[in-house]
Amino acid sequence: NERGITALAFAPDGRLFMAMDQSLTDDPDPLILYDAFHPSRSISVYDPAANTRPVEIFAESTRITGMTYYNGALYIARAGEVGRIVDGGKYEPLAGGFAVNSQLFHANDGIAIADGWLYVSAGGVIDGYSDGPIVGIGEAGAQNVVSAGNRFAARIVRAPLDQLLGQRSIEAFQTVARGVRNPYGGTVDGSGRLWFTDNGATNVPENVSAGDEINMLDPRSVAPGTPEDSTPYYGFPLALTAPAPDWYTPPVVALPNTSAPTSITWAYGTLFFGVYGRNPGLYRLGRAGDGSMVAERILLAWPLLATATAPDGALWIGTGSGGLFRITPGCG
Hints:
mainly beta; 3 helices
């Protein structure tokens, strides 16, 4: 395969859906690379058991960064939009109007479904420090700056799936968490908690956290219709140089600045995620001797953009250079 893989999703019967882009390692065309709306992306379906050639089911798409399969349909997060492909059917848009900053690769990225709700990780539109530090203002003001006033940016949002399918509008979505910069991946663990990565700001001093994080949200802790200013706030875009305020929700794991974590999935009883930037590769969450959560790199790979868990429990990863790998426990 000579095309980059930007997202993966499995159907219960073992079919693997792959979002395809240009290769990100072989002198990518900058006119495509920095244009999220360039219609050069596609989705192919592959049957690992039959090992047949992948079949393209959706072509001339904008950039695709998240997919999940649910109840006979593939749900897709692509530049500024959420849609789906019902088995045997064509692509159907469900909601448009999410913020997109092509140059920063910010958009609606991760997508997950749990307990009848569809969750979307919606990125902000500015970088933070490279645009000038956002300090000395309140939580609501900082949120407004990084989202440029877009109610569906720099947030984790959700919509009742039945309502979204009937209404087919972004207005079906409501905020469930705020204070994120570019939350790339999203997944649900075995107990129904939502986990998401956040890609932090650039040009940040080493003594200040840029917001590269692994975060966890229990959706059941945020009742439907909760006012936005009462939803959890995860820190970015404020520079937390002083003791964290009481409204700040800390990450499960704070990663080094410029780590740029990407896709995340639940497998083998823990979380696995990709890192695109500093110390790239495949990581998993583990525990240190004192019981604290830590990120452990288990595989050196670049650029790792896609992860998914197969029906048999195996972990699959896809890279921006076109590599597709299946990973299972082995002997040390």
